[in-house]
């Protein structure tokens, strides 16, 4: 399967200790201040570890990963016989969330597996299912779709056992994402619609909105813009209704994408190539609509401190302004995207920014700057490609070591089982010998007594 444009997909990331994605940046900071005050006043380890875990997740929500890791690891140091293992599992999970958000998938996976092991000991099926889901998401991002599906189905199976409808719907959503590829769109839609049906049954509006977004994205990719527009608009309406700021911005961004796509890909013919472009008057209208939706998304993302989303909006707006030949404004947004991408160390967005700046320079005839940006674009593209190859090699090695250890462990278990079997056989033989010896001895003693009595 091909690598997907993840910025357009809605992944469900369930096992967060707290979820305040709809809060404003001000409200989140107030929540953080409140938790810091509570930690100072905490007298019991149980209360303190609970607040530390919540603080870890709050810092993740505002993108302060260093402080998030600080308080998450502090929660782990408090784990003792008094503090239950459940809190320890939550701490590992939230630390994994931070590494996931930061793009460090290997460390995220390590922490999710640590959380899973504890949850398995606790035999809490809901949390075990959540751990499987999170592990599956990491494999998904590493393009290891086989392992992703294994974990998603393991999560689905447990959730069906306990009747967790929300969890079942989330599992179907993530399974759909694995199949979200042109060759497997029917299978993806099947899973998305199954999720939508369950979300509708339990009146989970956030899940319904997310399902509309995912279904709309496939229709968009297929060139079915009228249906995609319906789905995205329905998602936007629900997200506004429930005050889901992240989801609202996401829907606006998708609407921006669909209007932009109609300029250059008005409909697809059977060969998969774009047909005639839209007329110039229609193009300008579509581009203006696209820009307005990107701008609405940007306002929300800046207000909520969603830095990755802010970059995406800057890129979208810069792209549209290039097409409208508003070059000075385009340059301003693209430079903002580049600077913020560099601050976050987001190579994908840095690469995209340099690519569009190269295009802008070419339009202006500034060939020296265009060549400079082209070289920088190439550097980041090659770096990303090398990391992808290295990540795959590392993942293959991890899988090999894991399978080798599993085989060794299985062989060890067989040897121990065989030894135990032989031990039991030997014990039975020895027991029988002792029994026979006791009988012989008893008979001997009985005869000896009879002989004495006669004498």
Describe this structure in words.
The chain is mostly helical and 455 residues long. Among the domains are: 160 residues, Serine Threonine Protein Phosphatase 5, Tetratricopeptide repeat; 59 residues, no CATH class; 35 residues. 81% of the residues lie in helices and 0% in strands. Helix 2 packs parallel to helix 4. The chain starts with 24 loop residues before the first helix and ends with a helix. The relative contact order is 0.05.
Unreliable segments of 5+ consecutive residues: 1-9, 13-26, 268-276
Rg, nearest Å: 30 Å
How does the helix and strand content classify structurally?
Answer: mainly alpha
Overall pLDDT:
79
The biggest beta sheet reads: none
Molecular shape: elongated
State the helicity in percent bands. over 70%
The H/E string reads HHHHHHHHHHHHHHHHH
* Strand coverage percent: under 5%
**Number of strand segments:** 0
CATH architecture of the domain at 1-160: Alpha Horseshoe
CATH level 1 class label of the domain at 1-160: Mainly Alpha
Q: Number of DSSP helices?
A: 17
What is the CATH homology-level superfamily of the domain at 1-160?
Answer: Tetratricopeptide repeat domain
Beginning-to-end CA distance, first to last residue: 98 Å
Can you give keywords for this protein?
single chain; mainly alpha; Serine Threonine Protein Phosphatase 5, Tetratricopeptide repeat; disordered N terminus; 455 residues
Give a topology summary:
Elements: H1 25-41, H2 45-61, H3 65-77, H4 85-101, H5 105-122, H6 125-141, H7 145-162, H8 165-178, H9 185-201, H10 205-221, H11 225-242, H12 245-264, H13 280-304, H14 307-323, H15 327-344, H16 347-364, H17 367-454
């Amino acid at each position: 399967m091909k690598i997907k444009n993840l910025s357009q997909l809605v992944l469900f990331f369930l096992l967060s200790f707290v979820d305040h994605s709809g809060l404003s940046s001000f409200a989140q900071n107030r929540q953080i201040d409140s938790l810091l005050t509570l930690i100072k006043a905490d007298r019991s380890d149980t209360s303190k570890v609970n607040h530390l875990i919540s603080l870890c997740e709050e810092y993740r929500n505002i993108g302060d990963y260093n402080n998030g890791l600080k308080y998450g690891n502090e929660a782990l140091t408090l784990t003792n016989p008094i503090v239950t293992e459940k809190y320890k599992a939550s701490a590992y999970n939230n630390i994994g969330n931070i590494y996931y958000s930061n793009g460090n998938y290997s460390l995220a996976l390590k922490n999710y597996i640590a959380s899973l092991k504890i949850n398995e000991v606790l035999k809490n099926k809901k949390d075990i299912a959540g751990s499987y889901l999170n592990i599956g998401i990491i494999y998904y991002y590493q393009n290891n779709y086989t392992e992703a599906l294994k974990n998603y189905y393991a999560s689905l199976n447990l959730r069906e056992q306990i009747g967790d409808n929300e969890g079942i719907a989330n599992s179907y959503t993530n399974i759909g994402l694995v199949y979200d590829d042109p060759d497997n769109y029917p299978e993806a839609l099947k899973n998305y619609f199954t999720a939508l049906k369950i979300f509708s049954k339990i009146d989970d509006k956030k899940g319904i909105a997310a399902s509309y977004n995912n279904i709309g994205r496939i229709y968009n990719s297929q060139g079915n813009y009228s249906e995609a527009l319906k789905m995205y608009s329905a998602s936007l309406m629900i997200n506004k209704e429930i005050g889901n700021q992240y989801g609202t911005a996401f829907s606006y961004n998708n609407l921006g994408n669909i209007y932009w796509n109609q300029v250059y890909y008005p409909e697809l013919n059977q060969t998969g190539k774009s047909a005639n472009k839209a007329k110039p008057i229609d193009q300008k209208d579509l581009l203006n609509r696209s820009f307005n939706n990107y701008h609405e998304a940007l306002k929300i993302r800046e207000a909520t401190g969603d830095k990755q989303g802010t970059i995406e909006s800057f890129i979208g707006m810069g792209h549209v302004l290039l097409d409208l030949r508003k070059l000075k404004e385009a340059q301003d947004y693209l430079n903002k995207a580049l600077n913020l991408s560099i601050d976050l160390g987001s190579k994908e967005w840095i690469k995209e920014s340099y690519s569009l700046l190269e295009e802008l320079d070419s339009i202006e005839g500034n060939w020296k700057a265009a060549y400079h940006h082209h070289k920088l674009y190439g550097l980041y593209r090659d770096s990303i490609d090398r990391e992808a190859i290295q990540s795959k090699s590392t993942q293959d090695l991890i899988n090999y070591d894991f399978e080798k250890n599993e085989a060794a462990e299985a062989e060890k278990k067989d040897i121990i089982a065989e030894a135990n079997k032989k031990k039991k056989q030997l014990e039975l033989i020895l027991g029988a010998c002792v029994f026979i010896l006791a009988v012989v001895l008893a008979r001997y003693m009985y005869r000896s007594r009879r002989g004495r009595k006669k004498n």
